[in-house]
Amino acid sequence: MAERTLRGARLGGQSFEDERGIEFAARQQVGYNCPQGHFFEITMSVEADIPAQWECPRCGTVALSAAGILPEEKAEKPVRTHWDMLLERRSVEELEDILTERLELLRGGEIGPAHLHRPSKAKKKANA
Fold first, then answer.
1. Cα 119-121-126 angle, rounded to 5 deg
2. 38 annotated to bind ligand
3. Binding site annotation covers 115?
4. What integer is the mean pLDDT of 62-84?
5. How many CA atoms lie within 13 A of 83 on its CB side?
6. pTM of the model
7. 54 - beta bridge partners?
8. Half-sphere exposure in the Cβ direction for 33 (13 Å, CA)
9. 117 versus 51: which is more confidently predicted?
10. How far is CA 124 from CA 99, 104, 107, 113, 120, in A?
11. Annotation-wise, does 59 bind a ligand?
């Protein structure tokens, strides 16, 4: 047996401290009702904020507090689309101007992939 091992004690399983003279924190039982009909209680500190919801240990669904504590309604932000963010930076008229400018460049063969470029008349004459 290696010299590093502990003899006579289980690792991580047993405390040798005595509980005499220790004052435990005040506790309370908090009940929850599951939508599946299960009722269970959780032990919590008296000073703890009681959550309105708790996961049912039997079926895993969200159970509500039996004390009638309601969950807080979270204010949801409206979804911002790419179009909304674009309109924050530019007006519709500016966007139309940019679109026509980019389409002219694309059609002229100055930008974009080569397979979309229309052959110009100068190139046709040079090849002939």
1. 95
2. yes
3. no
4. 90
5. 1
6. 0.47
7. 63
8. 8
9. 51
10. 28, 20, 16, 19, 7
11. yes
Using 50, 70 and 90 to split pLDDT, how confident is the model at 113? confident
First to last CA, the chain: 93
Q: Find tokens 């919801």 and name the residue.
A: 53
CB atoms within 10 A of CB 32: 23
Give the three-class secondary structure for 54. strand
Average pLDDT of the segment spanning 64-77: 88
How far apart, in whole angstroms, are the C-alpha atoms of residue 57 and residue 66? 15
116 pLDDT above the threshold of 80? no
In the 8-state DSSP scheme, what is residue 59?
A: T
Mean pLDDT over the full length of the chain? 84
Largest CA distance in the chain: 105
Chain position carrying tokens 């694309």? 106
Can you give the pLDDT at residue 72?
Answer: 87
